[in-house]
C-alpha cells in the first residue's frame, strides 16, 4: 500500500464493482467492460492505489468473478494485500461486504468502479475532510439544469433552489465506526451518505470534478474513451487534477 506520511489517519477503500452494467448491454459486468483495452476497474484502481494513507483495499465483485485469475480480470493490476469479496443483490449489501473486509482503519472511502476517471485530488479532498474531524464527506458538483419535483402523475409540485443542490459523486468517505453503525441498521439506501445522515451525523460536501462521472451508458463510455485519448495525446495518464 502507499506511504501514510501524507495523511494524519489510516484509510481503507471499498471499490464497488458488483454492478451488472445492463444499460451498457455488455457481456461482462460493468466494472469489467473494456476502456482503451483495460477494464473500467483497472482505471479506477490506478488512482485508488495513490490515495494518501491507504492501508486496506477491498474490491466488491459479482458472484463468480471473485477469482482475479479469471479472464475478465485481464489488465487489472491489484495492489498488494487487496481483498476481493462477492457483493450482494443491492448496493448497500455490497458495500457492507467490502466494509467488513477492510478491517481496522480510521477512515473508509466507498468508491464506484464505474467512476473510473475520478481524479486523485477528489480522493484527497475527501480524506482531508474526514481526517480533519467531520463525520463524513462526499464530492459534489453544482447542478446546471433547473430541477422540478413532481407527483405520481408527473405534475410539477415544486422548484427547488438550484443553488442549494449538488450532484453527488464518489468516493464518499466516513469515520469507519460511524459507517459500520450506519450499515448495521439494515436500512437500504442509494448511497452511504444517506445512511450516515439518518444516524444524525453531518456529512460535508467537498468539491467534486466533472471527470468523476459514472459510466452507465454507451455515451458515457465513449466520453471516457475521448478523455483518455486526449490525455494520451498530451503525454499524461495520471488523473490528479
* Number of strand segments: 12
Encode the helix/strand succession as letters: EEEHEEHEHEEEEEHHEH
How far apart are the first and last residues' alpha carbons, in Å? 22 Å
The number of helical runs is: 6
CATH topology: Spore Coat Polysaccharide Biosynthesis Protein SpsA, Chain A
Instruction: Let me know the CATH homologous superfamily.
Output: Spore Coat Polysaccharide Biosynthesis Protein SpsA, Chain A
Q: Please tell me what the overall shape is.
A: globular
Strand content: 15-25%
Any low-confidence stretches, pLDDT <50, length ≥5?
Answer: none
Q: What's the main sheet like?
A: 8 strands, mixed
Domain tally: 1
Query: Structural class per helix/strand content?
Result: alpha/beta
Q: Calculate Rg over CA atoms.
A: 18 Å
**Helical residues, percent:** 25-40%
Judging by the overall fold, what is the CATH architecture? Alpha-Beta Complex
Mean pLDDT: 92
CATH class division: Alpha Beta
List the keywords:
alpha/beta; 241 residues; Spore Coat Polysaccharide Biosynthesis Protein SpsA, Chain A; eight-stranded mixed β-sheet; 27% helix; globular
Structure summarized in a few sentences:
This protein has 241 residues and is an alpha/beta fold. The chain is built from six helices and twelve strands.
Summarize the structure in words.
There is one protein chain. The protein is of the alpha/beta class. The protein has one domain: Alpha-Beta Complex (Spore Coat Polysaccharide Biosynthesis Protein SpsA, Chain A). Helix content is 27%, strand content 22%. The chain has six helices and twelve strands. Strands 1, 4, 5, 6, 7, 10, 11 and 12 form an eight-stranded mixed sheet that branches. A two-stranded antiparallel ribbon has the order 2-3. A hairpin with a 5-residue loop joins strand 8 and strand 9. It is globular, with a radius of gyration of 18 Å. The two termini are 22 Å apart.
Amino acid at each position: 500500500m502507499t506511504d501514510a506520511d501524507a495523511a494524519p489517519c489510516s484509510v481503507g477503500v471499498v471499490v464497488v464493482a458488483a454492478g451488472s452494467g445492463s444499460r451498457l448491454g455488455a457481456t461482462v459486468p460493468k466494472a469489467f467492460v473494456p476502456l482503451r483495452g483495460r477494464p473500467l476497474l483497472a482505471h479506477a484502481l490506478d488512482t485508488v492505489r495513490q490515495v494518501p494513507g491507504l492501508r486496506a483495499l477491498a474490491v466488491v465483485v459479482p458472484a463468480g468473478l471473485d477469482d482475479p485469475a479469471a479472464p475478465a480480470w485481464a489488465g487489472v493490476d491489484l495492489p498488494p494485500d487487496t481483498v476481493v469479496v462477492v457483493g450482494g443483490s443491492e448496493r448497500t449489501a455490497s458495500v457492507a461486504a467490502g466494509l467488513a473486509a477492510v478491517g481496522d482503519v480510521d477512515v473508509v472511502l466507498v468508491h464506484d468502479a464505474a467512476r473510473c476517471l475520478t481524479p486523485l485530488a477528489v480522493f484527497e479532498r475527501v480524506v482531508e475532510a474526514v481526517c480533519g474531524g467531520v463525520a463524513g464527506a462526499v464530492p459534489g458538483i453544482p447542478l446546471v439544469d433547473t430541477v422540478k419535483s413532481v407527483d405520481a402523475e408527473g405534475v410539477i409540485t415544486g422548484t427547488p433552489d438550484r443553488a442549494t443542490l449538488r450532484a453527488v459523486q464518489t468516493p464518499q468517505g466516513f469515520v469507519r465506526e460511524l459507517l459500520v453503525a450506519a450499515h448495521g441498521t439494515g436500512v437500504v439506501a442509494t448511497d452511504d451518505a444517506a445512511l450516515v445522515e439518518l444516524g444524525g451525523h453531518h456529512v460535508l460536501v467537498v468539491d467534486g470534478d466533472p471527470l468523476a462521472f459514472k459510466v452507465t451508458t454507451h455515451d458515457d463510455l465513449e466520453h471516457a474513451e475521448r478523455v483518455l485519448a486526449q490525455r494520451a495525446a498530451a503525454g499524461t495518464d495520471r488523473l490528479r487534477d
